[in-house]
């Protein structure tokens, strides 16, 4: 399969520089992808950025598995549709699709989610982020040595112009996926990231105001009372 990227020559060293804060501010999840393949060269740059992340004692207990095979796609598609069904029934109490004339934020989000899960086998490429667990501390704490690598990857992908969306719905078929990929004992899957050239544009993320999520010295003492200048 030809994994060359659209509009990019193999001799190019990378995309134009993107301001770091701008990249973080616009690296929202994108769930609609063009069918164009993502080249190994572009993907390698993103994965190299993942390796620059910090980890406990610099142990670098990670493995990044690039997934493109039809066997993996056949496992992930049904798993992600099952994950979506679970979310809709558990958190929304319905599995109905939004009405065609509903343009609310929730409806737009639901449509993008449905597009992803309905077409999950057609995502250009997935990256599986795995972490070696040693058992010395709770697994939640060991995740501190893989999640920064995932964030580095997401930001590097944003700088390339790629769209990404991380998810844990692989858990609905984790045993099958582990067997297919050949993941050894002692390794945990932290996330599966879907990657592709996006349909649509990157844009500002929507997040809670800083003053609502920060405090100073004690839990209930505000750190700031107004938002910082951007």
Brief sketch in words of this structure:
With 230 residues, the protein is α+β, with helices and mostly antiparallel strands.
Structure description:
With 230 residues, this protein is α+β, with helices and mostly antiparallel strands. It has one domain (20-212): 3-Layer(aba) Sandwich (NADH Oxidase), CATH 3.40.109.10. Helices cover 36% and strands 13% of the residues. The chain contains seven helices and four strands; from the N terminus they run H-H-E-H-H-E-H-H-E-H-E. A four-stranded antiparallel β-sheet has the order 1-2-4-3, covered by helices on one side. Helix 2 packs antiparallel against helix 6. 25% of the residues are buried. Mean pLDDT is 90; it is low at 4-12.
Architecture blueprint of SSEs:
Blueprint: H1 20-26, H2 40-51, E1 62-67, H3 70-92, H4 105-118, E2 125-132, H5 139-142, H6 147-160, E3 163-167, H7 174-181, E4 187-196
Antiparallel strand pairs: 1-2, 2-4, 3-4
Helix pairs in contact: 2-6, 3-4, 3-7
Task: Please state roughly what percent of the residues sit in beta strands, choosing from under 5%, 5-15%, 15-25%, 25-35%, 35-45% or over 45%.
Answer: 5-15%
CATH architecture call:
3-Layer(aba) Sandwich
Q: Could you give the order of the helices and strands?
A: HHEHHEHHEHE
As a whole number of angstroms, the C-alpha radius of gyration is 19 Å
Poorly predicted ranges (pLDDT <50, ≥5 residues)?
A: 4-12
Residue-averaged pLDDT, rounded?
90
- Biggest sheet, spatial arrangement of strands: 1-2-4-3
Identify the CATH class.
Alpha Beta
Distance between the termini: 44 Å
Number of discrete domains:
1
Q: Work out the helicity level.
A: 25-40%
CATH topology tier name:
NADH Oxidase
Contiguous helical run count: 7
Structural class comes to alpha+beta
Q: What is the tally of beta strands?
A: 4
Molecular shape:
globular
Considering the protein shown, what is the CATH homologous superfamily? NADH Oxidase
Describe the main β-sheet briefly. Answer: 4 strands, antiparallel
